[in-house]
Design a protein that fits this description.
Blueprint lengths: L2 H53 L23 E6 L4 E4 L9 H10 L2 E7 L2 E11 L4 E9 H53 L15 H57 L5 H27 L15 E2 L24 E2 L26 H10 L1 H4 L26 H4 L16
Antiparallel strand pairs: 1-2, 1-5, 3-4, 4-5, 6-7
Helix pairs in contact: 1-3, 4-5
Length: about 425
């Protein structure tokens, strides 16, 4: 059921209750007024009859029948009955001898007036009785009228009230329907626009600015504010998803190199179980070093994992340089990357200092070497036997040699290509690329 129908039904119910209360009050007032008016007319007629009886001669008080009687069963007009002191009719204008109860006559004699509703010939009649007194006689005068007349008047009033109620209800339906239609038209337009916005991929679309200072205007402002918050939440969610995708891609790229080194050294040890002990120790050292490096990468990636409130480049404080500035990549047209360049020095996470405000990470997360250093680290690990490896402080170390043997071949790949050669021609470190 639509809100327009509910408002119309509610308005009709209110109008119906008001009409019933109003019509009931009006009907009660009319009914009470009709009863009082009938009693007043009957009392006036009875008083007039008493006056006429007192003026009449003794010969006029003989019992007579009317030439044109009033039948209570047929007519609704008033009629008079003159009774003697015993209640016997002397003169009457009705069609039958009316029998007035003795209790009514006693009350009229005692109080000077009595009113009651009595049945005459099966018809309820309203009777007002007044006593009369003459020097030669006494009695009562009763003015009567059928109750049917009063009921007919009340029926007419009820009919008029019913017709008025129907017309009022019809007018109320039309008025409430038109008013609710006009009042809910902006709400319908708001609903249609909101549906179009919901089906549209454009999240920047908004409802027209509210110019009305009512509930619909406040609803429009609230809806536009909700759309702004939804757009902001969607934008932040998209940014977080893109950062996570970049994070996964960077992690996969950085972990691929140590995993390749570990796989190559493991394959070497599996393929040559009787290899030289020095080569086995070098391969195991490479495995250990790459495992440590991979652990550092995982720790660093765990530290730099993007969250909705943190970007993935928050870990610049775990690596510092001698000039306390982060390393920058060489651009095209500049001098050689190695010429005059300060090499980064690894700093323990427990002693790292924050070089830039707002760019730091938890100190218990491990090393945070930049991604662009991974390639040079791999190349340096692959060429340790040929030209020596650099320590984290930048000093160059010499290639290891076996005890009592000549300096080894400068090519680390000989361990994989010629594993059966003499120890004097086998390198001590593994091929890490």
């Amino acid at each position: 059921m639509s809100i327009r129908t509910r408002i119309t039904l509610f308005g009709l119910a209110v109008v119906l209750v008001v009409l019933v209360c109003f019509s009931g009050g009006i009907f009660g007032l009319f009914a009470l007024g009709i009863n009082e008016d009938q009693d007043k007319k009957l009392d006036t007629r009875a008083a007039y009859g008493v006056t006429q009886v007192q003026k009449a001669s003794a010969a006029d008080l003989t019992p007579t029948r009317p030439l044109v009687p009033v039948e209570p069963t047929v007519h609704d007009d008033m009629f008079l009955v003159v009774l003697d002191a015993n209640g016997a009719p002397i003169s009457y204008t009705g069609g039958h001898d009316p029998r007035i109860p003795s209790a009514v006559l006693s009350q009229a004699k005692a109080t000077g007036r009595a009113a009651a509703t009595v049945p005459i010939d099966g018809v309820l009649v309203r009777v007002v009785v007044r006593p009369w007194q003459r020097p030669d006689a006494s009695g009562f005068v009763a003015a009567a009228q059928p109750v049917r007349r009063r009921l007919a008047d009340l029926g007419g009033i009820l009919f008029v009230l019913g017709i008025s109620g129907v017309v009022t209800m019809a007018a109320a339906v039309v008025a409430i329907w038109l008013v609710t239609r006009r009042a809910l038209r902006p709400l319908r337009q708001l609903t249609v626009t909101a549906d179009e916005i919901g089906r549209s991929p454009d999240r920047t679309r908004r409802l027209p600015p509210a110019t009305r200072r009512d509930d619909l205007g406040r609803l429009t402002q609230s809806f536009n504010a909700m759309l702004d918050r939804l757009e902001d939440a969607h934008r932040r969610t998209a940014q977080a998803l893109a950062a996570q995708q970049r994070f996964v891609a960077d992690a996969s790229h950085e972990l691929r190199t140590p995993l390749t080194t570990i796989r190559n050294n493991a394959g070497f040890l599996r393929a040559h179980p009787d290899a030289d002990p020095a080569d086995r120790d070098a391969a195991l050292s490479d495995l250990d070093a790459e495992a440590v490096r991979m652990t550092r990468l995982v720790d660093r990636r765990s530290c730099c994992a993007p969250t909705p409130t943190r970007s993935p480049s928050c870990c610049g404080s775990c690596w510092t340089t001698r000039s306390s500035t982060p390393p920058r990549a060489a651009t095209s047209g500049s001098r050689s990357p190695r010429a005059g360049r300060t090499r980064p020095r690894w700093k323990s996470p427990t002693t790292a200092t924050v070089s830039r405000p707002g760019r730091r990470c938890a100190s218990s997360r491990g090393s945070t070497r930049p991604i662009r250093r991974a390639g040079r680290a791999v190349r340096g690990s692959a060429c340790r036997s040929r030209r020596g490896s650099r320590t984290r402080t930048g000093a160059r170390s010499r290639p290891r040699t076996t005890t009592g043997a000549a300096r080894r071949s400068p090519y680390a790949s000989h361990r994989f290509l010629n594993p059966g050669s003499s120890p004097a021609h086998r390198p001590a470190s593994g091929w890490s690329s």
